[in-house]
């Protein structure tokens, strides 16, 4: 069935790879489209996008339907369908998106209630700046975030000390071991709060954590895993799993969480401790670099703010500022 003329419905937004999409903060509206005959269609949840097809939950059954190039979909999307093809995409609510120079802006998952950043207490080594980048993005769009520190059975002795500045900034950390089961009762309670996407670097154990959460809850229908080819060690596309009364979304590992379209003045929103101190800066637009009367730098000099926090903030700020320089 062909699409109706766009003049009879709401015009879909441009493809995320198009030149007009230079702000990842507006990703929720990308490629959404309400078909004029929506009352004649059904609504399905996208569980995984295979490229030309998507695996969707349609009226309680997992089926495959054809995708349309005009409406790229991601895990978590609610789509209009006639049972065979994607005919439109509903507004996405809160989304997780990221930017990389080689691939541009990528939408990862939609309709989110919270983000769980999975980190490793051993290998791969924990990187504070990786978490800081997520914090900037999530705080700006008001998306709750927490950390799942995995591999605590082989943890670096300094890991909890390194997390103290992040915890002091108001970020919850759940310490777990996917091998021993440590921390999983607390983790399940947190995951049950709403639709959660798990994100992190390759090798931190996102898929292993999800498998244990679902297995211990006896939530994995074996025939569905077989049908959709799940259960593999490496996740190659974001996938949705049913968990209690909500959903979990597993995602491929990433190397870096980049930004595009973020204003320099927004970066401090990812650092609540720095944001609170900024209220005392003499200059309202202070970026806490070389400005006179900066309360943030003064707090570092006086020992009231960990120097690592200002360094992490400055690293992200400089990246955002570099992106705003004109290209010649």
Describe the structure.
Helix content is 24%, strand content 21%. The chain has 328 residues and is an alpha/beta fold. It has 3 domains: 6-89, Beta Barrel (OB fold (Dihydrolipoamide Acetyltransferase, E2P)), CATH 2.40.50.140; 112-250, Rossmann fold (3-Layer(aba) Sandwich); 264-323, Ribonucleotide Reductase Protein R1, domain 1. A 6-stranded mixed beta sheet has the order 10-9-8-11-13-12, sandwiched between helices. It has a 5-stranded antiparallel beta sheet with strand order 3-2-1-4-5, with no helix packed on it. The radius of gyration is 21 Å and the shape is globular. Mean pLDDT is 84; it is low at 1-21 and 221-233.
SSE blueprint and pairings:
Blueprint: E1 42-49, E2 53-58, E3 61-66, E4 78-81, E5 86-89, E6 96-100, E7 104-109, E8 114-120, H1 128-140, E9 145-150, H2 159-168, E10 172-175, H3 184-191, E11 196-199, H4 206-216, H5 222-227, E12 239-243, E13 246-250, H6 272-278, H7 295-301, H8 307-323
Parallel strand pairs: 8-9, 8-11, 9-10, 11-13
Antiparallel strand pairs: 1-2, 1-4, 2-3, 4-5, 6-7, 12-13
């Amino acid at each position: 069935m062909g699409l109706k003329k766009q003049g009879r419905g709401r015009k879909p937004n441009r493809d995320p790879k198009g030149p007009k999409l230079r702000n990842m903060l507006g990703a929720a509206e990308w490629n959404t489209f309400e078909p004029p005959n929506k009352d004649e269609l059904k609504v399905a949840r996208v569980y995984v996008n295979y490229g030309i097809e998507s695996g969707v939950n349609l009226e309680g059954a997992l089926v495959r339907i054809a995708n349309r190039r005009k409406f790229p979909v991601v895990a978590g999307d609610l789509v209009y369908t006639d049972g065979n093809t994607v005919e439109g995409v509903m507004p996405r609510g809160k989304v997780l998106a990221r930017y990389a120079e080689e691939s541009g802006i990528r939408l990862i998952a939609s309709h989110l209630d919270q983000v769980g950043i999975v980190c490793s207490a051993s290998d791969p080594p924990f990187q504070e700046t990786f978490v800081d980048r997520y914090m900037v993005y999530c705080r700006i769009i008001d998306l709750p975030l927490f950390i799942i520190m995995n591999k605590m059975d082989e943890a670096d002795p300094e890991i909890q000390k390194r997390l103290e500045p992040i915890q002091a900034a108001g970020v919850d950390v759940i310490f777990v071991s996917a091998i021993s089961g440590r921390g999983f009762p607390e983790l399940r309670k947190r995951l049950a709060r709403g639709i959660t996407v798990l994100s992190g670097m390759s090798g931190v154990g996102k898929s292993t954590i999800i498998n244990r959460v679902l297995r211990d809850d006896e939530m994995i229908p074996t025939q569905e895993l077989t049908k959709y080819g799940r259960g593999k060690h490496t996740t190659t596309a974001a996938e949705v799993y049913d968990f209690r009364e909500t959903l979990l979304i597993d995602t491929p590992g990433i190397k870096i969480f980049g930004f595009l379209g973020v204003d320099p003045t927004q970066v401090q929103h990812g650092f609540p401790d720095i944001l609170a101190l900024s209220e005392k800066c003499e200059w309202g637009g202070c970026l806490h670099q070389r400005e006179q009367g900066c309360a943030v730098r003064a707090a570092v000099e006086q020992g009231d703010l960990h120097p690592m926090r200002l360094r992490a903030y400055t690293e992200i700020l400089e990246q955002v500022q570099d992106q705003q320089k004109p290209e010649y």
